[in-house]
Amino acid sequence: MPDIWGQAAILTKLLLYVGALGASGLVIVQIAFATATSSLTQRLRRQAIALAGLALVASLLGFMLRGAALTGGADGMTDPEMLGLLWQTPVGEALLYRLAGGALIIVGSLISRFGHWGTLVGCVLLLWSFAQIGHLADIGPFYVRLLLLLHLLGVAFWIGVLPPLHRLSRTPDHLSQAAQLGHQFGQAAMIIVPALLLAGLVIGWLLTGTLAALISTGYGQVLMIKLALVAVVLILAAANKLHFVPKMQAGDANAARHLARSIQIETAVILVVLAATATLTSVLSLPS
Amino acid sequence: MKYFALFALLASLASGAFAHSRVDTTTPENGAVIAEVPAGISFNFADDIRLTRVEMTHADHPSVQLDLGDQKSFDRSFTLPLTGMGVGIYRIEWRGLGIDGHAMQGEFTFTVE
């Protein structure tokens, strides 16, 4: 078991993932599927602002927790010397990207004149912060960092479609919009999901190196749990695409209720996937 | 509740070190048995680090924080003066920040007879 600081780091990282991926995903989905989500614009903006706010708070808290790891006590969280030190390292750089990215998303969602593209730049900055630090930044050449950005953009896109699709499927009046969004997402996912999976697998391979490490190390075991959970999400998503969405396109309101339920389960499993990832990136060392 | 259980499971698998400890050598060496209390202890690291906390525990006494003095820059080797507390087991716990931003920690013990 990691110590109290390790556990706090995992939880904070999980909140950061939810905030950063959720906010970015909502922005991307609003741009990609403007027509299908038009009835939810205000709602999705509010959600993006809340999630970007969560990402900001979690980023700051995570930074302070790293200060605690340097002193071994809570005093490190506010110790100017420790935080100043961290600021000089890539950890400080990542925090800067996160603060700038989260702020851009909030400003862009509040001021419509600011435009979609500025908000999108905020998403890329926020997600790019994850390629600045951590195991990958240590070992990887530049293209591996781009691969991680691609992976994260794909994950964000997937996560971002869930709130609007869930909302629309639960409103009988919006059945046709729900079917349209589900269908359009299904089409895009045929390219994006394999790409994000492939990027994830290449990154996983680069980090673990051998198949034996998957079984024999804590890092490998958590990675296997993550992959198994991703497989569950894929099965749910395939059922949505192949079964419920076509029925909804044919006007079956019952299928929409099933889709909404399926999205709830999918969301819960994705949260566990993110928790597994937070564990991998916070406390586990790579197989050497 | 299910998710808390899963979280606990994940966390329990995470038995790996929170920190990336890459200390190369220490003086005295870990586990060394020596005749006299050394005037100081030194660390050699594989990469540049900045020591942030060093604590010494002697036998059953409460731990004391060692003064890092002016060694407040990123470096690979550090020497800290040690106040002798007689015979017994000395345990040194250290924490630091790697130049790459990773928190690092480790410990070593030596015995004075």
Query: Of all protein chain pairs, which has the greatest interface, and how many residues does each chain bring to it?
Result: A-B, 40 and 27 residues
Give, in order, the helices and strands of chain B.
HEEEEEEE
Radius of gyration of chain B, whole Å: 17 Å
Unreliable runs of chain A: none
Shape of chain A: globular
What percent of residues of chain B are in strands? over 45%
* Strand segment tally of chain A: 0
The value of Rg of chain A in angstroms is 19 Å
Biggest sheet descriptor of chain A: none
Number of discrete domains of chain A: 1
User: In the CATH hierarchy, what is the class of chain B?
Assistant: Mainly Beta
Q: What oligomeric state is this?
A: heterodimer
Number of helices of chain A: 11
CATH architecture of chain B: Sandwich
**The CATH topology of chain A, please?**
Formate dehydrogenase/DMSO reductase fold
Structural class by SSE content of chain B = mainly beta
Uncertain regions spanning at least 5 consecutive residues of chain B? 14-21
Which structural class fits the helix and strand makeup of chain A? mainly alpha
Report the sheet-strand fraction of chain A.
under 5%
GO molecular function (chain B): copper ion binding
Keywords (chain B): Copper, Signal
GO biological process, one term (chain B): response to copper ion
Pfam family, one (chain B): CopC
Write the layout of secondary structure elements.
The complex is a heterodimer of chains A (288) and B (113).
Chain A (H helix, E strand, L loop, with lengths): L3 H29 L8 H31 L8 H8 L2 H21 L4 H14 L6 H5 L2 H28 L5 H34 L2 H6 L1 H32 L3 H30 L6
Helix pairs in contact in A: 1-2, 1-5, 1-7, 1-11, 2-4, 4-5, 7-8, 7-11, 8-10, 10-11
Chain B lengths: L1 H12 L9 E5 L4 E3 L5 E19 L5 E2 L9 E7 L6 E11 L4 E10 L1
